[in-house]
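Exercise 7. Predict the structure of Rod shape-determining protein MreD from Proteinivorax tanatarense.
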Amino acid sequence: MGGLISIIIILLLVTIQGSFLPLFSINGIVADLSLVFLVLLSLQKGNVYTLLLAIWAGFLQDVVLLDFIGIHIAAKLFTCYIIINFKDYFYKENLLMILLSLVFATFIHQWVMQFFMVFLDVVSISFYDVLTNQFVPLLIQNLIVMILFYVPLKKLISDKNFYQL
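Solution. The predicted structure, encoded as tokens:
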């Protein structure tokens, strides 16, 4: 059930992020809903299916938000891979540790995005400017989204047969 549901959830989250959330942007930055979902999923069910969902979410965001295919894919995939490998060090039932892991994941995601944007000569903004103008508003919004949707998402993900259709 969770595999198909996760694919649909990611599709809905990216659609909401690209269409409705810009109305609530801070400096043009909106919460990365799929990153919030993928971080919680990586902490609870970190496996190869989570990495496939990261590729799916990154692909959708590349198509909807960017002119390049692969930047969001690389950022989401790398971020989920790191979170999955370090998930044993986080206490998964503690909201504070989940929020801390979201801070870590948001930083990694923004760093990878900035690396590829500079490498491909898409932007020439410094990493300090990215931290102050993009990372902080994104982090605040991601934390608010995680706090608001932690309980329903955790209930959805906590099913032991989550990935079975």
